[in-house]
Queue: 3 jobs
Job 1
Amino acid sequence: MKTKFIFVTGGVVSSLGKGIMASTIGQLLKSRGLKVFMQKFDPYINVDPGTLSPFQHGEVFVTDDGCETDLDLGHYERFIDENLSKESSVTTGKIYQAVIDKERKGDYLGATIQVIPHITNEIKDRLKAVAKASNADVVITEIGGTVGDIESLPFLEAIRQARRDFGQKNTLYIHTTLLPYLKAAKEIKTKPTQHSVKELRSLGISPDMIVLRSEVPVSKSIKEKIALFCDVESTHVFESVDVDILYKAILNLHKQDIDEWILKHFEIEPSKPMDLSPWESLIKSIEESKKEIQIGLVGKYVSLHDAYLSVVEALKHAGYHQGLQVNIKFLNAEKITEDNVEKALDGCKGLIVPGGFGERATDGKIAAIKYARTHNLPFFGICYGMQLAAIEFARNVMGIGLATTTEIDPNTKYPIIDIMTNQDLTKNLGGTQRLGLYDCEIESESLAYSLYQTTSIKERHRHRYEFNNFYKEAFLSYGMKLSGVNKKENLVEIIELPNHPFFIACQFHPEFLSRPLRPHPIFKGFIEAAHNNQTNE
C-alpha cells in the first residue's frame, strides 16, 4: 500500500488538543517532502455540523467541495496549508446513513446488518476512499471524543482492524493523554495515562507513540515510567507542553524528533531536509510584536468564541504580518442599540460583522454598521454581515426605511436580500445552501482589486439568501460599488463604499482560506486600515 495511516486517539479528558497535535505532525511530515492529507472521525450521530447550534459546536467550517464540517478541519488546513474535502469529515451519522441506504437497496443481499462487519467496513472504506482521492503519502485521522466513550467504539474497532488489513508498517497509533500536575504536591501524576492506555489496549489497540499534554515540562524519568507501564519504547513518549504561541508546538515536537521516528516506523526516506524557518520567522515576528490594536466583533454567538474561530484566526494572521497583536472585543449584538453603539465600540479601530442567521440581534448589527459607515471606522462584513450592510445602506442612505431580507420578513415589499431562485425552503436545512468554492470577477477600479491584485478569484460560501439584483442600479446611483460578481449566476459577491477609509463586505467566507503564513488579502487590508486609523488619531 502506498498510503500510510496515522490514527490519533485521546484519553483522560476531552479538549486535549488532539487536532492541533495531529496538525502539527502533518506540518512536520509535509516539511519533509511528504504529501499529507487529514481526516476527522466524529462520533456524533448528526450527519454533519451544518444544523448544529454554534453555541454547542462552534463554527461550521466549509471545504472547497461544499462539505459542512467540524471546526477541527480549519486547524488542519491552517497548519498543513492543504485544502481538504468531503472525505476529511466522517461522522457516525454519515456512516449509518450510508449503511442503511445500502441495506435498503439490497446491496447486502439480505444479510443481517451489524456493527461488525458492516459499520466497521464502511468506516474502513472511508479510509481507502481518502487515500485514493488525495493520493497522499500519509493520511492522518483524528478519532473524536475520548477513549472509553461508547459512541467512539465502532471507529476504534475499525482502526484496530485497519492494522490487520493494511499492515503494521502502514499504520501508526498515536495516543494523546493528559498528564495532570498537582500544584499543591508539585507532582505530575501518571496514573490517568496508565488507565487510558489500559482502556485502549482492552479494545485491541496498543499505541505506538504517546504524546503527553502537560502544563509543565516532563522529566525523562516520568517518560520512562509511562513507557514501562504502557508498553511503548521510551523514545516514543513525547511531551506537548502548554505554549504561549500555538505554532511553537511545531518546533517543540520536532525538537523531540517525532517526525524522524514516524518516518522510521513507515520506512520512508524523506525527499528533502527539514526547513521550519518560515514558522521560526513567524514565531519571532509574533514575539517581537509590541503594538496592539483592538477590533470590535459584533455577533450573536459571542459567548462562545469558537463560533467565530476562523474569523479570529484570520484577524490574527493579518496582524502577525504587520507586527500587530490583534485584540478582539467581542460585542453581543443583542445588547447594542443606536444609543449605546458609540460606547460599545469605544477603543475599537475597526469593526467586523461576521456571518450568522435569523432575525435575532440584527438591529444591533445594523446599528454598528451604520456607526462605522458614518464615523469613517474601517468596516468588514462577511456573509450576513454583507447583507445587513446592504440593508443599512438602503434604509439610511437610499431612504427605503422598510428595507429588509426575506429571511426575516418573507412578505416584505422591499426585499433587498432575497431567497436564491434555485432554493426550495421545503427541503431539509442541512446541506441545501450555496456551499463551497465559487468564482468571483472583481472590478479593476475597486478596493477589492487593490487587495487581491487580480480580477478573478475563488472563495468559499455558506448561505441561502442573495443580494436582490432588482435594486442593483439604485445602489449604484447612490454611490455603492458592487465590485465583485459571480457572472455565471449573476450574483453580487462584494460591495464597497469608495468614499470611506475602508468599507467592504463580501457574500463569501474569506476566513476559511486564511493561513498563518499567508494571511487573506481582505483581512490584511482591513487590519492595515484599522492600524492607519489608530495611527492618524
Job 2
Amino acid sequence: MTIQGWFLILAFTSILLALAKPVGLWLFALYEGRRTPLHIVFGPVERSFYTLAGIDPGQEQGWRRYAVHMLLFNAVLMLLTYAILRLQAVLPLNQQGLAGLSEHLSFNTAISFTTNTNWQSYAGESTMSNLAQMLGLTIHNFLSAATGIALAFALFRGFARRETKTVGNFWADMTRVTLYLLLPVSIVYAIFLIASGVPQTLATTVDVTTLEGLRQTLAIGPVASQEAIKMLGTNGGGFFNTNSAHPFENPTALTNFIQMLSIFAIGTGLTYCFGRAVGNTRQGWAILSAMMLLFLAGTAVTYGAEAAGNPVLHHLGVAGGNMEGKEVRFGIAASSLFAVVTTAASCGAVNAMHDSFTAIGGLIPLFNMQLGEVVIGGVGAGIYGFLLFAILAVFVAGLMVGRTPEYVGKKIEAREVKLAVLAIAALPLMILGLTALSSVLQQGLAGPLNKGPHGFSEILYAFTSAVANNGSAFAGITANTPYYDGLLGVAMWVGRFFVIVPTLAIAGSLAAKKHTPVSAGSFPTTGGLWVGLLVGIILILGGLTFLPSLALGPIADHLSMIRGQLF
C-alpha cells in the first residue's frame, strides 16, 4: 500500500461526502414535484408525455396500483428488448451484419437490462448492433434507474405521510427523474467523456496503423452516451467486453475517478433526500455514516489484500502486489477502489478482472453484493434496501427498551417486520439455492474455468451478482449457455421485483399510520449507537447467512494459496 493510494481513497471519500447535500437537495425537489430551473427546457416535454399517455400526474396511487403499473411497464419493456435482440439481423443500424441473438441469450439480456443488472453473457462489440445497443440496452439504463429512484420516493412518502392511502404517482416520479436528473447529467457527462477520448459515432469500426506498421481494425460506436448513463444509473453494462478496463470506455485516470464518483453520487444524495423527506436530516446522515463505515472497511481489506500480492509468487522471488488482471494505467489502488465501489453499488462495471484478484480481495466485492448491495447501493435500490435493514434494526432496538419500535415517527409493527424479512430473505434463498444446484449438476459444473474453491467462487459470484442486480462477474465462468442464461435470468427477476413489491407494501402500510412523536422511551435513531446497531444487523445477517458458502469458496481459496496451492 502507498501514500498515493490512500490519498486517492481519501480524496474520493471527501468529494463524495461533499456531493451528498447538493445532490440530495435536487432529488428532494423532484421528490416533491417542485419546479426546477430545467423546467424551462424540459417542462413542455414532460407535459407532452402526460398528454400523449393520458396520464394525470396529480392523481396519486395506492401502493398496489403503483406496483401494478411499475410491473407492467417493466414487463412490456423487457418484451420489447427481447424482440429487438431476436430481430437484430433485419433491423437497421447493423452495418456489421450481426445475427439475431439466440432465445436464451435474448431472454437473459432482456431481463438483465430491465432489472438494472446488466449482466452480459456476450461481448458487446461483436454481438450487438448500434441499434440494439442504443434502443435495446441504453434506454433501459435510463428507465431501470428511474424506476429504482421512483420506488425509493414511494417508500420515503410512506415514512413521511400520515393517515393516507397513496404513495405518489409512478409515471410522474419516473418521468421527472428521467427528464430533470438522468438525461441532463448524462448529456454533460457524455460530452466530458467525448472530450477525454471516448468514441461517439454511428460508425462501427476504424482502421488504424500500429506502432509496428501493421493494420488493425478497432470496434467503435456510440460509446460515450452509453458509458455516461451506465455509471450514473448504476447499470454497468459495457459497450465493450472488457467494460471500463477498455481504453475507449475509460481512457484516463481522471475518467476513472469521475466514473467512480458517478456510481455513488445519486445513492449518496438519496440518503440526504430521505432525511429531508422525513423532516430530520440527521436521519439521512446516520444512514450515510453506516454505509460509509462498511464501504471504507471493505476498501481497506481489498486494497490491503491486493497490495500484499500472492504469497506463492513471493516464495518464487517475485515481489510486489497483485497486478494480474489490472490495467497498468490505473494500478492496484484505483482498481481495488473501483471493485469495492461497483459492488457496493449495484453497478457491475469493472476496470479490472475480479476473477484475478486475490482470494480475500475477491471476497469483499462478493460480500458487498451478498449484503443486498445496501452499502450506498444502486440508485433507489440501495436506500430502500437499507431501510429494510433499518426496520429490522429498530425492531431489535424496540425489544431492548421494552416498547413498540418506532422509526422516524412511525410504529414498526408485525406487518412491516414480516414484509421486510420476506424481501431480505428472497436474496439468500435464490443465491444459495441456485449455487448449490449448479455445484452438483453437470450443466452447472461445465461453467467454471477453474476447479476447487475458486471454481465454486465463480458459481457463487455469478448467482450473487445476478440476484443482487449487480452484473459483474468472476470472468472465468462461461455463462452463455441455456442453463446459465435461463437460471441467471430468473435470479435477476426475483432479486429485483421480489424485493420491490414487499417494499411498496411497507410504504403503503406506513403511509396509513399516524405520526408517533418521540418520547423518553424512544430508541434514538440518529447517534453513534444507532449507526453501530445498523452496521451490526447488516453484518450479522450477511455473515450468518453466507459465511458457510464463503468458507467453501474464497476463504478456502485463500488458505490453499498460503499453502502454495492454486486453482
Job 3
Amino acid sequence: MDFFEENIFGSSMFSEEKYEILYDSYPYVDSNTDEVYLDRTPSYVNGAHVCQNVLLECSIKRDHISNAVKSVSFKMPVDNAKLSSVFHMLPWGLIKKNRTGVGATTLEMKSRRNSIIVVPTRALAYDKFIKSHIPNTVKHASYYVGSPINGHQPRELEDYLSDDEIKYKKFIVVSDSLPNFLKRLGEECFSKYFIMVDEIDSYQYDNWYRPNMEKVIDCYFKFPYTNRCLVSATVGSFSNPMINSEPIIDIVFNSEAPRNITFYPTNNVITATSNIIQSIKDAFPTDKIVIALNSVLHGILPVIKSLSTEIQSQCGVWCGIKSKKHVEEYYIEDVNDTLDKNIIFMTCSYFVGIDISERFHLISVADVFHPYSLLSPDKLQQIAGRCRHEGGLISEQIIYSFRDSPNNNSIDYEAIRNKIIEDGETLISLNQNIANTKLLFPNLLRAFNCFSLDDFVLYSKKSYLSSSKAPLIRVTDNTLALSYFNIDNILIQIKLANELYSDERGLFHQLCIDGNNCHLDLSQKILSPIPEEIISEINSEVFHNVMVERDAIISELQQYHDLGQLKSVAMARRNSATNANGVFLDRLIELVNYVPFQDLIPLLQEYDNPVQYKQLYNAVVFWALSPNHPIRITIDSKFEVGKSYPNNYIIEVVNSIWQGILGLGLLTDKQAMSFAKRYFLSMRRKSVRKERNASPTKEYVIESLNALNLSSEPITQISSEDNIQMRVRL
C-alpha cells in the first residue's frame, strides 16, 4: 500500500489506537531574523520519556487508503547515538531499531522498572548477565534464566526477589525457558513486569528446529500492550496478525557506510570455504577469521576436515549445545567479546547479540541445497554487525551456491502465504471436526484411525516450492494453532531461493543496490567435491559421538528406580542431547511407562529408524493390554505357546482383531501375516507334510504371545476401556 507522512508538531498530544505521544515546547531562533519562536518536540513516546534537551524529529506514517496509523518514526539526533541518549526506557510496541549496537537491551537493563528480557540463545543471555555485575560485590543486577552454562549456579529466586539492594529486578531469560519461568513468578508478573523480546526476527529463522520459540509469543501477548515490546535490527513481514497489530516504532538513521564485499558463487561451498580460508592464512598468517555457517554436520565439520592439520589446530566453533558433541575438540563454551582462536566458525545461535571487539576477516556461507543455511541481506548485515571494533571488518567475503535457474518474478508471495495458512487451518478444522463427530457418531469413527495432537503436528510438515519441510501447526494450551513463525520461515526460504540464490549474480546485485562496494570473483565457481574419505570419517565420528553420549545417558538414567524421576531426568537431558539422542530420549519417555528400563534400552537400539520404531511402538501397545481387553482375550484364547498353526488360521485371527475389534478394515493375507509377526506373536515357520509326496504346508510354531518375546510384565497396563484405535500408528 501507499503511505504518506504527517508531521505531528501541531498539537500537544497524539493518541490513537496503541500510539501515545506527548511533546513540549522549546524556543527556536530564526537564523535569518534572529526572532525567537516556540516549536515542539516529543517528550514521551509510547510510555518512554525522552531525555532532557533532546530534540526529536518525529512523524506518523499512515495507510493512504484507510488512514490508519502504520508506524511512528523518529530520527536519531546523532547518527552514532545509543538509545539511552534519547530515552529513559524502551517504548512499548514493535521497535525497528534498523541497526545493530544501538543499546536497546542495555537501555532496558538500566531502566527504572522491573523487566523480563527474552533473548534467543544461552550465550547471549549469559553475556548480558555477566555484564550486569555490581562492582565490589559478588552480586549481579540481573538474574540468568536458562539451561546451565559455564558452571553458573544461580541465586535462589526468592533470595534475588527479596534483595532490597537491587531495586529493579531484571531477568535475562533464554526463550525456551520463558513459559516455565513465568509460572514460577506467578500471575502477578504480567502486571508487575515489562517484557522485552529481543531479536524477534531470529524466531522466524530458527523456530523450525526450536519450536518452543513460538511459545514466547503466546507468553508475550499475556502482558498488557503497555508492558511489552518486540525488538530487532532487521524486522521483516510477519504472518501472525497479532504481531501485525502491535504499534510500530521505527528508528531512523542516516545510511550506514558501505561495506566492501567480495562474492564467490560456487558449486561447492565446502571446498570454496576451505580455499578462501587457506588464501587468507597464506596472505595474513596472524589475522583472525570468523566463518558464519549455519550447519555443523553439512558445513563446519567438512570444512575443518578439508583444512591442513596446522590450520585445523587454529579452529574453534561457536554452536548450540545440541551440536557440541560433534565438534567437541573445537567447541568453545565461554564466548566473550574476544576471539579465543584464530579461526572461529559460528552457527546462527551467534548471528545476533554477540559483540566482538577485535577486527577479523568475515566469511559468510550460504548453501542453496540446505535452505536453512540461506542468508538474507538483512541477516548478512547482522552478521557483519558482530564486529564492534572502530576499525570495522578487515575484509568481508560471501560464499554461496545457487540453483542456476531463472529468477521467477511472477511468484505471488501473499498468495503463497494465504495458501499455507489455509492448509494449516484445514488441519485444525479437521481435528475439531473429528472431536465433534466422535461425540455425535461414535460408531462411525470406529472405521477410522484417530490422531493425537502431536500426530497432527508431525504430519503437517510440508514443503512449498522446494523449501525445507516444516510443521504448519503446533500445540498450545492443549489445542492446535497455526505455527506463524514456520510459515514466515517457509516464505523467507522461497523468496531467497527464487530471487537471490537463483543464479550467480542475484545476491551480488541486491547488495550492490543496497549501496555496498561489491566485487564478483568467479575463481571458485566450478570445484571438485571434497574427498569421499572425509565424508566417511565425519559419518564415523558422528556415529561414535552419538553412541558415546547415548551410553552416558543410559548409565545416568539406570540409577533412577523411580519412574517419575527417570522421566524427569530424561526430559532434562533431551534439551542438550544431539538430535539423534533427542529422538532416542523422546521414544524412551514414551515407552518406559510400559516396558521395564533394562528391557526397553536394547529394543530402542534395535528398532532405530522411524519405520522400525513405529513397529516397536505398536507391538508395545498390544503387549501392554490388560488381560481383560478383548484383543488380549482373543490372542490368549486362540494361541498356545509351543503349538503350531497354519498360516490361514493366523490370518483369520489377525483379521478378527484388525477388522472386527479395531474396525480398521480387512487386511490382505500378506498384511495379516506381517502384522501377526510385528505386533502380536513371536513365531517361527516350520514345514509340514501331512501326506506322502504332498507339497509342504506353511505352519508356524508360537514362541511367545507377544511379538517382542518379552518375558517381563508391563509396568502399566492399558485398560480395556482405552480406545486402542487412538493409539495404533498406521
